[in-house]
Amino acid sequence: MPLMDFLGDIQCQSALFNTVYFTKVKHSHNFRLPMPFRKHITIELENPSAENLAAYTDVQWEKVEQIPDDCGYLRTDYHSGTFQASKPLVLCQINRPATIMAHWLQYESVKSVRGEQLCEGDHQFFLDGDDKPTLNYLGSEDAYGFSWGFQHGVQSDGRCAIIKLENLKPAGSRVAAIRCRVDDAIRFQKSCRLVLTYENDPGAAAALGTTPIPYRHCVYYYAKD
Predict the structure, then answer these.
(1) Does the N-terminal peptide bond of residue 36 adopt cis geometry, omega within 30 degrees of 0?
(2) Which of 59, 76, 203, 213 is at 20 to 30 A from 21, Cα to Cα?
(3) How confident is the model over 43-65, as pLDDT tens digits?
(4) Which CATH superfamily is domain 3-223 in?
(5) DSSP readout, 16-52?
């Protein structure tokens, strides 16, 4: 995935923000999710552009006697594309025992003003094959800790952050938010399916219409091989 997206600076356009796992400050990005490994680790960056890029990085590591057998590797589930509000969107599907520690979402619509209508899509987590949502957030603004929408703009409480609220031209808005689950990790033994759906708010679905909604989404989780 793009490095800046991995660091929470989605498309290099997030506002400055501060959370426990991700921060974007004036001259740096900081990533603090542990990345355990048993034998070795290789970190590779690829520049797909024709531009000559320059930067530097600092990696902090700690040598330990052993890693617990039940400790998983840090992994990501990253997607980008478009969807329509009239159809449920599967944001994430993980088919293994795992623990979700963080996730972020960016979406936009020419039919949305300051994130309104967009924010009404429910976030439904189906864990371990449950037929009904195990966790059901009534609106993505609630899934990211900001009730009553994203209209008040960029802000953070250290766990959750609105990292982008932009007006589009000639109309519409783009919103991005991130949530760090340091206190409320989502654990499951078999599977997790995360669905974004407007089925419980037909008014918002009708307002957004059939116009494609571009989105990017990422889940950070720990799982064994």
Answers:
(1) no
(2) 213
(3) 999 999 999 988 889 999 999 99
(4) Protein of unknown function DUF2961 (2.60.120.1390)
(5) PEEBSSEEEETTEEEE------SS---------SSS-
